[in-house]
Specification:
Blueprint (H helix, E strand, L loop, with lengths): L2 E6 L4 E7 L6 E8 L3 H11 L2 E8 L11 H14 L5 E5 L3 H11 L4 H4 L2 H19 L1
Parallel strand pairs: 1-4, 4-5
Antiparallel strand pairs: 1-2, 2-3
Helix pairs in contact: 3-5
Length: about 140
């Protein structure tokens, strides 16, 4: 069984989370520069079996796509081209950034560490992946 890899796509940085091989536990993997994302994914999939990409779907409160969806659509096209055999599923990512920030507070991180946007993106990707796993 392959891993499931979640992507919290951002204009500058993208958070990545992954499951274990049994697809039971979601863990933050890394935050990468978005411009390097496809290269990172190619390197990762060269050593790890990934059977599904889960990509966050930003929505507004009225269920309409958020403005950042316009940036994600071209990325999804690149992802499909680069990995034609790995399916992509979308997961509503509303509130993941707020939940990730609250997780940082609850875990006792200092104010300085909570300003680390890369960590926030990685936690957000983990929450997206957990949401997907719960829905299965």
């Amino acid at each position: 069984m392959g891993r499931i890899l979640a992507i919290d796509f951002g204009k500058v940085k993208t958070g990545i989370a992954v499951t274990d091989e049994l697809q039971l536990i979601a863990s933050g993997l890394e935050t990468v520069a978005t411009k390097d994302l496809i290269t990172f994914l190619k390197n990762y999939t060269a050593t790890e079996q990934v059977e599904l990409f889960v990509v966050g779907e930003p929505k507004q409160m009225n269920n309409e796509p958020s403005e950042s969806e316009a940036l994600i659509i071209p990325f999804l096209e690149k992802l499909t081209k680069a990995f034609p055999k790995i399916p992509i599923e979308r997961v509503d990512e509303r509130f993941t950034s707020k939940m990730a920030f609250q997780t940082m507070i609850d875990s006792g991180l200092s104010k300085k560490k909570r300003k680390n946007k890369a960590l926030l993106d990685e936690i957000s990707a983990t929450l997206i992946l957990q949401s997907y796993l719960y829905s299965k």
